[in-house]
User: Which sequence fits this backbone?
């Protein structure tokens, strides 16, 4: 519960509800703000001056660069075909799957309720609409929305 | 953690898991029920006899009238183009954005996993389907669903 | 807060964040793993060797068989037309609605952010894509995705 001892936290990070988050083994950059009910797994990296809003889940394999906005209830993924057990019916272990990385480039914004499939890169300053399901790369400055997410505009205009 | 001292709570409000919610600066009407893992921000107003289900996020600028049902994992929004930082790369402050209001009228029901864009009004007794992304006003008594949400029926029949 | 005394827990169940879950009146099978910010209601049944990921909500009426993977932020539903109040404007009670059951068969996997309407059966080993809204039965071994979820392939190939 809360922030594990193995989290690397930058200067001026704000986590107003430390008892209502679940952070372990991750890295959080300077001045980043993290809301309630957020889980960030080991091996995830969050840059500086980001905002990670409530109810979001950031898994191992995700790299979030500086100045990124993650809305509320955003879900990241690191496994294309997740299973509870291996073919023999025993629990999967870390040896049973490959973690597929995802990168969110500097200054991008992901709207609330967005889901990001593994293996994609979301370009710098791109805007992902609320509720979008991102299944492929998003170019820098693009605006995407929908399920699956489609290009709405080439420039986010901001 | 829990319910801040500056929350205005009506009579007979039920919050069975007070340590697992994050409520601050909001108003909650009589007999309303609030589930676990719910965040309600300052300036949000919840009416009487509402049900706010687990995992939902209600932001500043949202007004929920009486007898409204909010499903599980429903996300509200108050900013059309959210950013972590201002143009100069410093953290956004309250001066950097305008809170766009949203109104949910009496007796409406929002299904689980719905996302509600800012600036919309959802009419009285309307039904929003589970997983819908509401991007524009919903007429009273209407049934909408999908991404973006489209009109399925003029009357919710109940 | 946490795990109520009336939860039936199997052998070897793993709940690393017991203070950040809300489990009551449910049954959890042997060796199942449950993440943070998960709520499981009374009357829900989870099988053995399942993985229930963070931020998911499993309601009364849901039966999850053995070896099922539930992603992050998955929402189940047990009421087709939820309302906060009855026709007379008073709070709904348990007498005012019928709980519609849902079954997830052995070895199925539900991607993160999926929403499952009540009354459906998801077949054995089926894969539900991330962010899908499941509105009808999914055949065994099928792959479905989208809003509403549509069949992408007959065999999940794994």
Assistant:
């Amino acid at each position: 519960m809360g922030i594990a001892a193995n989290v690397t936290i930058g200067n001026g990070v704000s986590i107003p509800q430390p008892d209502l988050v679940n952070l372990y083994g991750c890295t959080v950059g300077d001045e980043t703000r993290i809301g309630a009910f957020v889980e960030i797994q080991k091996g995830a990296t969050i840059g500086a001056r980001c905002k990670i809003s409530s109810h979001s889940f950031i898994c191992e394999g995700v790299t979030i660069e500086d100045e990124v906005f993650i809305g509320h209830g955003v879900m990241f993924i690191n496994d294309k075909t997740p299973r509870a057990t291996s073919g023999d019916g025993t629990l999967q272990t870390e040896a049973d799957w490959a973690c597929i990385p995802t990168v969110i480039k500097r200054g991008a914004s992901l709207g609330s309720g967005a889901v990001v499939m593994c293996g994609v890169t979301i370009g710098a300053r791109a805007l992902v609409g609320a509720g979008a399901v991102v299944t492929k790369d998003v170019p820098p400055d693009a605006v995407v929305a929908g399920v699956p997410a489609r290009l709405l505009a080439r420039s986010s205009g901001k």
Remarks:
- The mean pLDDT of chain A is 95.
- Residues 113 and 131 of chain A are 4 Å apart (CA to CA).
- The first strand of chain A starts at residue 2 and ends at 3.
